[in-house]
């Protein structure tokens, strides 16, 4: 499987025609037919089917298309990166971050890096930690800030930070006014949660043992959870880095649980093991390793 074959496949898929793709690629149609035949021979399946005069993707073709487009995009990015390097720049920074780190930590780290390296193009991708591992493997991102508990074994940790998990609510919530509660107390209040991640982990430690306390509202986006909390709708567990400003402004309050302790939430900056980082990614990792998280987050207000 070659990039020329994949490029031919993508052009034919987009134009639904061998002849139109041949014009766009400035190649003879037999050349295109030969590339597709070789690709189909390697895959053991046809990539296109004909419906009258229309050429459509087969099931195999539809499955291959997004991967072919991704590989061609990476080729384009790689060429552009090399050209920038020849001009003496650091290249670009492609960073991924999970939802918790994206709330406040990543924007401030990116701002700090950008002010030091104004000429470096920066791309930030937000996704769950497992999805970030896939993007690292594919080369879509160079670095990822994610949950250390969900790091792929082949990833290499460059920097880590242990963040406290907190039981939090609006400053107007009855439990916030008391400042503390027991696990049994929580059964009488509205519980907000995510499907997975640090919130689920934390709630398992503070909800009453052996009691199926219902989750009243479930949301995946951290911003949705924060807005619900600020409106006084319930209580939940969140990493401090995800609600830093709300805590500093007093909009959200940390509540002590007398008969339970919450684990730490460990965040890590990782690269895919064994790969050489581009200069921009190396510079970002070195910058992160030299900062105090509390100073970076505190600079936002």
**CATH topology-level fold name of the largest domain:** D-Maltodextrin-Binding Protein, domain 2
Mind telling me which CATH architecture of the largest domain this is? 3-Layer(aba) Sandwich
Number of strands: 12
User: What is the helical fraction, as a range of percent?
Assistant: 40-55%
- CATH C-level class of the largest domain: Alpha Beta
Walk me through what this model shows:
With 301 residues, this protein is an alpha/beta fold. It has three domains: 3-86, Arc Repressor Mutant, subunit A, CATH 1.10.10.10; 93-153 and 274-298, 3-Layer(aba) Sandwich (D-Maltodextrin-Binding Protein, domain 2); 162-265, Periplasmic binding protein-like II (D-Maltodextrin-Binding Protein, domain 2), CATH 3.40.190. It has helices at 3-15, 18-25, 29-43, 59-86, 99-103, 105-116, 129-138, 174-178, 183-186, 198-206, 222-230, 244-249, 279-289, 293-298, and strands spanning 48-51, 54-57, 93-97, 122-126, 143-147, 155-170, 180-181, 192-193, 217-218, 235-239, 252-257, 264-272. The protein is elongated, with a radius of gyration of 25 Å. The mean pLDDT is 87.
Note the topology.
Elements: H1 3-15, H2 18-25, H3 29-43, E1 48-51, E2 54-57, H4 59-86, E3 93-97, H5 99-103, H6 105-116, E4 122-126, H7 129-138, E5 143-147, E6 155-170, H8 174-178, E7 180-181, H9 183-186, E8 192-193, H10 198-206, E9 217-218, H11 222-230, E10 235-239, H12 244-249, E11 252-257, E12 264-272, H13 279-289, H14 293-298
Parallel strand pairs: 3-4, 3-5, 7-11, 8-9
Antiparallel strand pairs: 1-2, 5-12, 6-10, 6-11, 6-12
Helix pairs in contact: 1-2, 1-3, 1-4
